[in-house]
Design goal:
This protein has a six-stranded mixed sheet with strand order 1-3-4-2-5-6, sandwiched between helices. It has helices at 7-26, 31-49, 65-78, 88-92, 99-116, 122-155, 168-185, 201-210, 235-246, 266-275, and strands at 165-167, 188-196, 218-220, 225-232, 253-259, 280-283. The chain starts with 6 loop residues before the first helix and ends with a strand. The chain folds into two domains: 7-155, no CATH class; 165-283, Reverse transcriptase/Diguanylate cyclase domain (Alpha-Beta Plaits, 2-Layer Sandwich), CATH 3.30.70.270. Helix 10 (266-275) links the parallel strand 5 (253-259) and strand 6 (280-283). It is an alpha/beta fold. Keywords: Membrane, Transmembrane, Transmembrane helix. The chain crosses the membrane at residues 12-40, 60-77, 84-114, 126-143.
Length: 286
């Protein structure tokens, strides 16, 4: 899985960039700019060491804030020697992010241009400003492409090739099919919804996949919620499987387990899970 998503080369590139930043910090003409370069190197190092093959940069988390402020700080303390970093504002716009963060990047980029214009004539300043605006527009276009790709992935049935993780659209198709099958075969089927913190999502998915039967799968409802259809012989076996399924799971989490023998919809049970305050709710047949 790691080589499939090229995580190793990406981590090596990030560590190489971090090393370069630290080396540049050692030769920085001013102490404040050197300290900012060291902070940037440490940020890249930490990001590379926590990178997982199944984790994408989340568009809802403003992770670009730190490098953006570091860049602005760099131009504030030493604009004369750090002009080359001006183009990094365009790089920060290449991944999806909230609109307010795009505006903030634009304002900080404008501030950086204002800081470097003192050492340039009017023509050079206008040229740099136009080039930066052009690159930032290209970055925004690239972010739109990435966002569209993520939406296409979200609509895919299997989200990760080779992994037992399927989309919510697939669950919407499997749920009524399993209701009919359990009625026909006399098995006991349950919808299991588990909600955890964002950082625990992938460890939870891994453990859940290991505890399911070959004919069962995980479904991703959102970045914090997983679901599965638990198929058992009868209610007694279902209770045993629930205990095995939830033991030693990453915490904190909230779980909702509902039998398919009662009328339900995926949307209503998902909303009920989001609203519930108890760590576990089980609704059995009878």
């Amino acid at each position: 899985m790691g080589s499939k998503y090229k995580v190793g080369p990406l981590q090596a590139a990030m560590l190489g960039c971090a090393l370069l930043l630290i080396m540049l910090a050692l030769s920085a003409p001013m102490l404040p700019s050197g300290m900012l370069l060291v902070l940037a190197g440490l940020w890249l190092t930490g990001s590379s060491l926590t990178l997982k093959c199944s984790v994408r940069w989340p568009s809802s988390v403003p992770w670009q804030l730190l490098p953006s402020f570091l860049l602005a700080g760099l131009f504030n303390v030493d604009s004369e020697h750090q002009t080359v970093w001006l183009w990094c504002f365009a790089l920060l716009l290449m991944l999806p992010q909230p609109i307010w963060l795009m505006i903030l990047h634009s304002l900080l980029a404008g501030y950086a241009v204002w800081q470097v214009q003192a050492d340039l004539d009017v023509g050079q300043t206008l040229l740099i400003a136009m080039l930066l605006v052009g690159l930032m527009l290209l970055g925004l276009a690239r972010a739109q492409e990435v966002q569209s790709a993520w939406l296409r992935i979200g609509r895919r049935r299997r989200l990760i090739p080779g992994a037992r993780l399927w989309s919510v659209h697939q669950l919407g198709e499997d749920l009524p099919r399993e209701v009919v099958r359990s009625e026909r075969e006399g098995s006991y089927a349950e919808l299991v919804l588990i909600r955890t913190q964002g950082r625990q999502f992938w460890p939870l998915m891994s453990k859940l996949s290991q505890r399911l039967n070959d004919y069962e799968a995980c479904y991703k409802l959102d970045n914090r919620t997983l679901a599965t259809l638990l198929i058992s012989r009868d209610l007694e076996q279902a209770r045993e499987r629930r205990k095995t399924l939830l033991d030693d799971m990453p915490t904190p989490l909230r779980s909702r387990i509902v039998t398919l023998a009662r009328p339900l919809t995926l949307a209503s049970e998902y909303q009920a899970l989001r609203d519930q305050r108890q760590p576990l709710i089980i609704i059995e047949e009878g």
